[in-house]
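Hi R.,

Here's the chain you asked about this morning:
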Amino acid sequence: MEVPGADMVNFFSYNKVDQLGFKRKERLTTVIDLKRELSAIWEKMREGFIRKQIIKGERNGIVVRQDENFSDFKRIYGKFRKDKNIHEDNFRVFEKNGILFSAYLANRMIAGGIFIANNNCFRAWVLASKRLSDLSGPEREIVGQANRTVIWQAIKYAKEKNYEVFDLGGINPESEDRNESSLAEFKEAFGGERKNGYFYYKIYSKILKILIR
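And the predicted structure, written out as tokens:
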């Protein structure tokens, strides 16, 4: 597949193929089968780690909305990435192609997630929340509840829209990096199944090839 006029193209697939001219990277992910009943999806989530925290969050007044408040989320995303020493992606791409779910506490955004949908798949793209250092004691736990509630609301939305698969994004459960292994534990607690995912990319621009090198 060729994409005229592009400097670089990326594709994601669950199928492992040899695509002429493209390089391939493999990464493990975790997916939820949305063809199941919503109650069955809920029951498969870890009770104490996920379900109870979502219920507590709702009692604490967390409200999650699918909205277009990218400006507030961009500030949270930028600080979150900076504090974790992770590079920022082009946010305009998120705004143009993503579906945003925002978590509010007393009308103040404290967490959010951008998701991307294609064919039968609804996939987590980027998640971010207020950093713990910015919050008082009681609010720290609420941020964790908000993160879980964002994903739960996105799951319900994807099922209502008749998507078949909810993908929580890449995981690296065997990593020696504690942050990566903890993130994998968090994502897998939503009850999905491990699945191989494949990223295919091709660079057309000679200048971009040099910059990446």
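The chain has a mean pLDDT of 90.

Let me know if you need anything else.
M.
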